[in-house]
Amino acid sequence: MKKISILCAALAAMTLCSCNKESVSSADGGKKVMVTVKVSSGLVTKATGLDFSSMRGDVREYQIGSADIFVFNEGQLEAHESVTGASPDGSVSAVLAASSGQRNVWAVVNAPSLGEISTESQLKAALSSLRDNSLGSFIMSGSVTAELTDGGTVPVQVKRIVSRVSINKISTNFPAGSYRENYSINVKGIYLINVAGNNNYEVSAQPSLWVNQLGHKDADFDGLLYDFLSGVSVKNGSPYEVEHVFYPYPNTYGTTSNTNYEDTWSPRGTMLVISVDMLREDNSLYMSGYYPIALPAIERNKCYIIDEVSITRVPGDSEYKPIETGDATVSITVLDWETGSNLGTINI
Question: How many CB atoms lie within 10 A of CB 153?
C-alpha cells in the first residue's frame, strides 16, 4: 500500500511538472505556428514622379530576385528560409514554421548566401560588399518586430543599401567677350570617387574598404560608379542633357561633415567627377582636367540629384580637390527615392 502511495505521488509530481512546462512554454510563445512572411521593397510607388530613365537603360532599381528570411527568438535563430522569384507586385513570400509570440523578423534581398547565420547579432554585423550589387539587383535589408500567430502574415519592407546619385545636365556659361567664349568642353567620363566599399546589413558600420580612392582606380566597379562618354561636346548654348546615374554605398563623410581634400588618402566624402578636354574654337586641345563636385554625407536608399553643372572656368588638375571659385552655389531640397537631396544647379 505504501509503495502504491509513493508511485501515485510520483505520478502526480510528474503531471504537475508537465503542466508547468506547458504553461511556461505557452507564455513564451512555444506553440508552433505556420506564418507567411511577405518581403517587399515598397519602392515601385515611391518612385512615381521621378524620371529614372538613364544611360544605363531600364534598370529596375526595386527588383527583388531572391530573399533570405530569418525569424529570431530573443536573438537566436528560430527559422530561416531562402526564396527566389518575385511576384508581379515585386514582392516575395515564404511560409515558415516558428513559435508564436513576439519575434524579430529580418529579410535580406539579392545578397550572397547567408546560411551560416545563427544569431541576430551575427546577421546585423555581417558585411555586405558594394561589389555584390549590380544594376537591377541591389542588396536590400529590413526587419520588423511582429506577433506571430498561426496562419498570420508578416510584412517586411526592405531598403536598398546603395544610394542613387544622378546628374541631369552639363552646360557651359563662359563669359561673353572672354577668350573662352567660343571654347567647348569634350566630356570624357563621369564617375564617383572616394566611395565606401562595404557596410553591414544593419547599415551601422564604418567602411573597412574604399573604392576609387582619390581617383578612378577601380574599374571592377565601373558598372555602378563610372560612365564613359565619347564625342560629347558642350559649348555655350549647346548643353548636354542626358541623365547619368551612379550607385554608391553610404558614407558619413561629406560636405555636411568632415570635409577632407588632403593629398594623402584617408576616409573622406564621396565626390562626383567630370573628366574633360577643353578645346579651342578650332577644336585643338587647350587643356585636359577635371571638375570634381563634393557630395553631402550619403545615406542608404536616398537619391541625390544634381540638376545641372554649369561650367564657367577651366578645369582643375586634381580629381579630388574641388575648384575654388568663390561663387559656386549648391541648392539642396528634399525628394523621394525614399528621401534624398536635390543638389540643384552647381556653378563651377
Answer: 12
Torsional sign, CA 82, 128, 163, 136: negative
CA dist 88 to 58, 67, 258, 269, 344, Å? Answer: 17, 16, 44, 38, 35
Determine if residue 85 is left, alpha or beta; phi over 0 gives left, psi from -120 to 50 gives alpha, anything else beta: left
Q: Which residue in 343, 341, 335 sits closest to 49, CA to CA?
A: 335
CA distance from start to end of the chain: 103
List, for residues 168-213, the tens digit of each pLDDT value: 999 999 999 999 999 999 999 999 999 999 999 999 999 999 999 9
Q: Model-level pTM greater than 0.70? A: yes
Write the pLDDT tens digit of every residue in 315-341: 999 999 988 764 444 443 435 565 555
Q: Is there a contact between 101 and 147 (Cβ–Cβ < 8 Å)?
A: yes
What gap in Å lies between CA 220 and CA 189, rounded to an integer? 16
What is d(CA 269, CA 300) in angstroms, rounded to the nearest whole number? 14
Task: Give me 104's grid cell.
Answer: 524579430
SS3 of residue 157 by DSSP: strand
Summarised one tens digit per residue, pLDDT across range 74-94 is 999 999 999 988 776 778 999
DSSP-derived 3-state class of residue 200: strand
* 103-131 pLDDT tens trace: 999 999 999 999 899 999 999 999 999 99
Rounded to 5 degrees, what angle do the CA atoms 210, 212, 217 make? Answer: 135
